[in-house]
Write a sequence for this structure.
């Protein structure tokens, strides 16, 4: 067992939380659930599995702020911190590898670990369309890293040292269904719209945070979003992104589920963000 505190953020996650906790329990010393006022059985399920639960209702529910609250108030005394979402779970292979990497690198300059995920949508693994593997820096030595304070697209980053990547896949599998997925992404679109205007105001229309150094893949993705995607015409860019994901990046190879995923995630969601940006600009210009 590695010297790890896992922090899991929850809001009505009773469907997902058990598999998440069970997947990390063999390799971590502490599991801290930071719950934002769940009205289902999330808290009871987490406690029954041995997790410590902190209730901190945050409105709006911003992942970065909630994670920072957990880090600041959980009394972390372990070497490593592991940010994992309730709809994510480790496999036996990825758990074993994470455990080994943490133990091997307690006293090295490796201060972060990138976890890779296979995304599952409507019961099917999504292997094309530029989604697989989904990589995220989720483990870091306490005091050697933190998370960006952003409304959306927040990344963990290191203050110093380097990161290594796990070679085995973990699973990103939300069992709450398509309606919940739509509701979640409707909320995401509002946060993305707010992030868009914050970036214009604070970073000179670049959306690139210069205060710290993200890992190379995160920097590249952010560069594409702010330097290319948002410079395309608003009436065209959502469709162009869908075309790229579904046809150029072979999203159609994931069958009907792949088509629905590409349309909803690359077209519907991005179009919704642009619609909310347009609405906000229109309201502001009418004042």
């Amino acid at each position: 067992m590695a010297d790890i505190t896992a922090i899991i953020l929850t809001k009505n996650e009773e469907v997902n939380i058990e598999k998440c906790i069970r997947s990390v329990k063999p390799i971590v010393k502490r599991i801290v659930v930071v719950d934002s006022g769940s009205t289902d059985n999330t808290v009871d399920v987490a406690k029954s599995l041995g997790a410590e639960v902190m209730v901190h209702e945050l409105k709006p529910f911003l992942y970065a702020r909630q994670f920072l609250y957990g880090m600041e108030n959980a009394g972390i005394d372990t070497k490593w911190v592991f940010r994992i979402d309730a709809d994510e779970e480790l496999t036996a292979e990825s758990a074993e590898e994470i455990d080994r990497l943490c133990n091997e690198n307690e006293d090295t300059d490796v201060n972060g670990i990138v976890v890779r995920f296979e995304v599952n949508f409507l019961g099917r693994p999504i292997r094309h369309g530029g989604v697989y593997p989904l990589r995220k820096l989720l483990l870091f030595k306490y005091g050697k890293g933190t998370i960006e304070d952003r409304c959306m697209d927040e990344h963990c980053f290191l203050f110093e040292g380097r990161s290594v990547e796990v070679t085995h896949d973990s699973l990103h599998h939300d069992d709450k269904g398509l309606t919940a997925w739509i509701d979640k992404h409707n909320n995401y679109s509002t946060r993305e719209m707010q992030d868009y205007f914050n970036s214009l105001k604070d970073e000179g229309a670049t959306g690139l945070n210069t205060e710290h150094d993200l890992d190379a893949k995160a920097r590249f993705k952010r560069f594409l979003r702010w330097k290319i995607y948002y410079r395309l015409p608003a009436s065209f860019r959502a469709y162009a992104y869908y075309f790229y994901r579904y046809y150029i990046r072979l999203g159609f190879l994931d069958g009907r589920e792949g088509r629905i995923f590409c349309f909803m995630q690359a077209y519907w969601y991005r179009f919704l963000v642009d619609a909310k940006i347009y609405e906000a600009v229109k309201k502001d210009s009418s004042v």
Q: What stands out?
A: Helices lie at 17-24, 42-48, 63-73, 92-104, 178-202, 216-228, 234-248, 255-285. Residues 204-211 have pLDDT under 50 and may be disordered. The chain is about 45% helix and 20% strand.
